[in-house]
Design the sequence.
């Protein structure tokens, strides 16, 4: 498709995809599972699976020919599609990798070299939110801390009521670092946090970083593309990564890593080194040894799929957001709880407080509840344990992270959820000493 | 074809090396069916580069991919880890490793090299190694490995010794002698050799290296660790990691072991240092051991790693199982190589006992292959014009040394012929096609090379 941006690519069509067609595209989903955790592992429609299969067969048919003649041009096409979708300046700024975890490893390995080669000094810091994704925290430990760096964690207030609460915490953390004489070399900021999920005011956070003189700003937007607006020039970060398989219908798995052109950007390397080493991260990433690149090559077909929907990807995002907020509000009302943040800070996911009588009192409880909901009720939903703070009276300690994607049917889900919650709560009346959570 | 469902518990993998007693082995017609997705007219004699995968294994893979898409969370929680463990256990038995904890599954040998070398880089950065401590490798090591050494060793201040292997080669002794010389040279400069990287089967030119002997020499010479890059080994030569005795050993499963792209195993002998190996893509499993780290490196398609049980079923349909396949591949590629050599009046690059399922066949000197570019051009020409897929090697002549000659001049080019049981075209046909291709290339006039 020769289009310049996602929204412009939504060429007016007389017939948009129908509900029956959507159903057919996702008919491979388990029919009796209420799948409201799209934010976890994403989804992929049948037409894209078929396209992917074609590519796989082409490789298997004559792999040498594919390697010499088709692979690199195909990867370049995919990168160009993404460059347009995210409003990057140049296709060289766009690399395709497996997932956001790979992207963060690339950036952090670069930081580790900074320490090893004397550009950074022992005790130099990275700042990130305490709710950063587990793999990101581990990557920071493996590369940054191991090389001599220090981690500053910023608490994310939750439940949260406004962007200002987040900005305030961030400013305070940077101020403290300054007072302690720490050089902050890297800021890692989520665009949409994963648990609890909240849309962060990234543009303002990046501005604060620039004011504070932070060398590099990395946005972990695992949930970004297809979920919130993604505009590299507007956001202004040095590095930005987003998975394509979560909210952009790509098969597992593919992600992009955007690196703003600078003196530094040419020094980034993919950790799996091949003969392409030194030819730029984008080129290195498009050949990391023999493997299946079909998920990354199928990206141009994604546009064809999303443009069958009214408004293209923007329309999908808007409708997902409205539906998930509606659902969240109805559930919160039915249960007498509340949402974890106001609607404008929700994406295609929402945190809904669970009734206090469920007694979610630990991470183990939330895992058990999730397993129980899957096994007993066929509901796939992530559960979050929110530890109470000192002095709080009767806070909600459990939240469900509900996702909404095009294959979900709002009304059915609501009826189902309310029915389940009714059954579930009735199991707890009178209050049992042995909760279903222990099953 | 049903594959073993890893959720159904372990099957007896100790019998994995022995084929099922069956009165009915796979037939030629079955083989054609299994590889019916291959381009029907291309003489595909380059199995060594990208491997091949039979239809029944692809079906098993597809089944796994759909299972994931159907209910990804359940797959992640209930199926994935056990499935990868089942695959690792099969490999452990195949390669005679002591413990399944010594076996990690990664994408390919290139990833394994990055894992081992990244650790070397860290050792320099953390002061465990000193500037100019050395890594030793063969001069014909795979290009990705050389670049990985540059990225992690040279960049961190280490130095490199290259062992120049003779080619064409006449005996293992020639290789052993060069290897010993290079170690002496390295040590004579007072350098400490921290790691030796030895190919089990070199890529280009392709030779089977006497790894067991070379590893023994490394130990005798006090080289700290040995990494065997055996990208081509499993399914091509016998792999016994205890016998080889290296610290690290990697082989791709998609080259000669019928796995879909791509999957490889990295064996790490249990030791104090093996716990400090990490996958470069860090996930929440960081610190739980390399096999566990490698089994989850973020959301991606792990189906090629899960399909190893189905591959085992496939190879056991052949008489003699994988051993039978290896022997027949070797015998046939040697036969094919000799046919061409006789027809062209050239030579094989090594004696048959130093080749496995690939063999280097000297090209007529009249081709005047004078550079790497000529080799690439010739390869493309063979593919586009004659539908023959075969890698070409340009042999650089050493100063002052007489190369091998045919009746017209020095032999400067070799083709690397790879034979796999699934070769769609029979031996004689393949040889004829290659022969005809070269005859068709007007070798009396040297065009665009």
Sequence:
């Amino acid at each position: 498709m020769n289009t310049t941006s996602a929204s412009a690519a939504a060429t007016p069509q007389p017939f948009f995809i129908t509900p029956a067609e959507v159903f057919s595209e996702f008919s491979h989903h388990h029919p009796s599972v209420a799948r409201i955790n799209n934010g976890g592992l994403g989804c992929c429609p049948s037409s894209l699976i078929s396209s992917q299969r074609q590519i796989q067969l082409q490789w298997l048919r004559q792999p040498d020919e594919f390697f010499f003649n088709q692979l690199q041009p195909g990867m370049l096409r995919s990168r160009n599609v993404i460059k347009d979708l995210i409003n990057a300046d140049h296709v060289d700024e766009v690399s395709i990798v497996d997932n956001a975890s790979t992207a963060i490893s690339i950036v952090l390995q670069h930081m580790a070299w900074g320490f090893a080669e004397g550009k950074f000094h022992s005790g130099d810091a990275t700042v990130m939110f305490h709710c950063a994704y587990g793999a990101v925290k581990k990557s920071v430990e493996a590369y940054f801390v191991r090389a001599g760096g220090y981690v500053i964690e910023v608490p994310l207030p939750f439940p949260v009521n406004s962007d200002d609460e987040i900005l305030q915490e961030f400013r305070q953390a940077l101020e403290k670092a300054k007072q302690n004489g720490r050089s902050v070399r890297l800021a890692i900021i989520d665009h949409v946090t994963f648990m609890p999920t909240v849309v962060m005011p990234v543009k303002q956070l990046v501005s604060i970083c620039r004011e504070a003189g932070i060398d590099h700003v990395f946005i972990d937007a695992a949930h970004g593309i297809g979920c919130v607006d993604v505009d590299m020039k507007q956001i202004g970060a040095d590095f930005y990564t987003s998975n394509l398989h979560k909210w952009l219908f790509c098969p597992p798995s593919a992600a992009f890593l955007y690196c703003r052109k600078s003196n530094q950007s040419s020094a980034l390397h993919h950790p799996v080194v091949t003969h392409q080493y030194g030819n730029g991260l984008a080129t290195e990433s498009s050949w990391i040894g023999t493997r299946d690149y079909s998920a990354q090559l199928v990206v141009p077909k994604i546009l064809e799929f999303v443009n069958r929907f009214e408004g293209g990807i923007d329309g999908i995002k808007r409708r997902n957001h409205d539906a998930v907020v509606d659902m969240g509000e109805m559930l919160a009302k039915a249960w007498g709880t509340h949402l974890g943040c106001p609607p404008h800070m929700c994406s295609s996911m929402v945190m809904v407080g669970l009734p206090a009588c469920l007694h979610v009192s630990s991470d183990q409880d939330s895992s058990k509840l999730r397993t129980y909901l899957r096994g007993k009720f066929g509901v796939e939903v992530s559960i979050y344990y929110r530890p109470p703070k000192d002095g709080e009276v009767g806070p909600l300690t459990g939240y469900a992270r509900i996702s909404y994607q095009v294959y979900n049917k709002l009304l059915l889900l609501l009826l189902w959820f309310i029915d389940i919650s009714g059954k579930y709560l009735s199991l707890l009346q009178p209050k049992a000493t042995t909760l279903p959570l222990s099953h | 074809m049903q594959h073993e469902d890893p959720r159904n518990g372990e099957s007896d993998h100790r019998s994995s090396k022995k084929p099922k007693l069956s009165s009915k082995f796979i037939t030629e017609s079955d083989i054609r069916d299994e590889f019916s997705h291959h381009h029907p007219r291309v003489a595909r004699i380059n199995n060594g580069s990208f491997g091949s995968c039979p239809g029944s294994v692809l079906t098993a893979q597809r089944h796994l991919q759909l299972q994931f898409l159907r209910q990804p969370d359940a797959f992640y929680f209930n199926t994935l880890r056990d499935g990868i463990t089942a695959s690792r256990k099969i490999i452990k038995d195949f390669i005679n490793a002591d413990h399944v904890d010594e076996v990690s599954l990664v994408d390919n040998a290139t990833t394994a090299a990055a894992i081992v070398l990244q650790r070397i880089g860290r050792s320099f950065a953390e002061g465990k190694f000193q500037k100019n401590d050395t890594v030793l490798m063969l001069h014909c090591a795979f290009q990705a490995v050389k670049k990985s050494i540059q990225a992690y060793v040279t960049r961190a201040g280490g130095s490199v010794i290259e062992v120049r292997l003779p080619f064409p080669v006449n005996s293992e002794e020639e290789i052993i002698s060069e290897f010993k010389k290079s170690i002496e040279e390295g040590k004579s400069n007072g350098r400490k050799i921290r790691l030796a990287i030895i190919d089990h089967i070199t890529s280009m030119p392709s030779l089977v290296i006497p790894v067991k002997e070379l590893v023994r020499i490394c130990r005798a010479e006090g080289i700290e660790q040995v990494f065997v890059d055996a990208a081509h080994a499993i399914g091509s030569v016998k792999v016994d990691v205890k016998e080889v005795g290296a610290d690290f050993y990697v082989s791709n499963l998609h080259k000669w072991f019928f796995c879909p792209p791509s999957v490889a195993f990295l064996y790490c002998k249990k030791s104090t240092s093996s716990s400090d190996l990490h996958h470069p893509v860090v996930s929440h499993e960081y610190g739980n051991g390399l096999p566990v780290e490698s089994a989850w490196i973020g959301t991606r398609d792990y189906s090629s790693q899960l399909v190893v049980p189905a591959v085992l079923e496939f190879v056991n349909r052949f008489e003699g199982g994988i051993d039978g396949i290896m022997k027949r591949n070797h015998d046939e590629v040697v036969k094919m190589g000799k046919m061409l050599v006789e027809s062209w009046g050239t030579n094989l690059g090594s004696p048959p006992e130093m080749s496995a399922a690939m063999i280097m066949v000297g090209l007529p000197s009249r081709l005047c292959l004078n550079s790497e570019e000529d080799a690439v051009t010739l390869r493309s020409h063979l593919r586009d014009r004659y539908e023959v897929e075969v890698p070409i090697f340009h042999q650089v002549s050493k100063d002052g040394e007489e190369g091998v000659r045919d009746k017209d001049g020095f032999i400067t080019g070799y083709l690397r012929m790879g034979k796999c049981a699934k070769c769609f075209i029979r031996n004689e046909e393949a040889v004829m096609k290659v022969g005809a291709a070269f005859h068709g290339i007007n070798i009396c006039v040297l065009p665009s090379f």
In short: Residues 362 and 385 of chain A are 6 Å apart (CA to CA). Chain A touches chain B through 68 residues (CB under 8 Å). The longest strand of chain A covers residues 184-190.
